[in-house]
Write a structure and sequence with these properties.
Blueprint lengths: L1 H20 L4 H24 L19
Helix pairs in contact: 1-2
């Protein structure tokens, strides 16, 4: 689940870059936004089912810092 959340955040950043660069149509922007919001809701739902918080998904990598 941590990996899914990490990839979701990367996808959000990439979508923002593409929107700012103007490489997405309005329809694509809406579709990506909707898909990413649905994925976030799914991650939160799964985390709740397993009794963990979204903050728990941010693994401590020691000297490297937090994952997310």
């Amino acid at each position: 689940l941590t990996l899914v959340e990490f990839i979701r955040k990367l996808l959000v950043r990439q979508a923002i870059r593409r929107m700012e660069a103007g490489t997405l149509s309005d329809r694509q922007t809406e579709d990506i936004g909707r898909a990413l919001m649905q994925l976030e809701a799914t991650v939160r739902d799964l985390a709740a089912r397993f009794g963990i918080t979204v903050e728990d998904l941010n693994l401590d990598l020691g000297p490297a810092g937090k994952l997310i």
